[in-house]
Design goal:
This protein is mostly helical. It contains eight helices and no strands. It folds into two domains: 97 residues, Rna Polymerase Sigma Factor, Chain: A, CATH 1.10.1740; 69 residues, Arc Repressor Mutant, subunit A (Orthogonal Bundle). The longest helix has 24 residues. One of its GO terms (molecular function) is sigma factor activity. This is RNA polymerase sigma-70 factor (ECF subfamily). Keywords: Sigma factor, Transcription, Transcription regulation. Belongs to the sigma-70 factor family. ECF subfamily.
Length: 167
């Protein structure tokens, strides 16, 4: 995939923009920051000097780059110092954000090491070996994170449904 023509970049964008967007939103939980991050990640991809061997290589690079970029944003001084408009008492309003399900909402509440592994496994269909390679971890660690993450997610969902009023 050396020196790709514009239609190749369009195809890569079309294939992976939703994956990158969902992963960014999982970390950032904010539409505006997510859109900015997606744009930055695809710009990094196009600006990258090394070529890719195939589309799966591109997808793996995008997932790792997305994870790293979002973690950098979350650590940044600017993000920790700014005040979100909807948190100000006089500007209370609701930001409508579509979510795919209650399970995804609860997945986002898990610690990063569990939600990343569960997301890649269930939403992006990567296997344990691929996730371990992407994240630079042992397969046994990924399996442990999957098992622990599933248990925590199950407990969160059970607690949530246990508190619903009976009809």
């Amino acid at each position: 995939m050396d020196e790709m023509p514009h239609y190749e970049w369009e195809e890569i964008y079309r294939r992976y923009v939703n994956t990158v967007y969902r992963l960014c939103f999982m970390y950032l939980r904010n539409v505006e920051d997510t859109e900015d991050a997606v744009q930055s990640i695809f710009f990094k991809l196009i600006s990258r000097e090394k070529s890719f061997s195939d589309y799966e290589h591109v997808k793996s690079w995008l997932i790792v780059a997305t994870r790293n970029h979002c973690k950098d944003i979350l650590k940044s001084w600017w993000r920790s110092r700014r005040v979100r408009l909807e948190t100000l008492p006089e500007l209370k309003f609701r930001v409508a954000v579509e979510t795919t399900s209650n399970v995804l909402d609860n997945l986002l509440l898990l610690p990063e090491k569990y939600k990343t592994v569960l997301y890649l496994y269930y939403y992006e269909d990567f296997n344990v070996r691929e996730i371990a390679t992407m994240l630079g971890r042992k397969e046994s660690t990924i399996q442990t994170h999957l098992a622990t993450g599933r248990k925590r997610l199950k407990l969160n969902l059970e607690d949530q449904y246990a508190t619903l009023p009976n009809k």
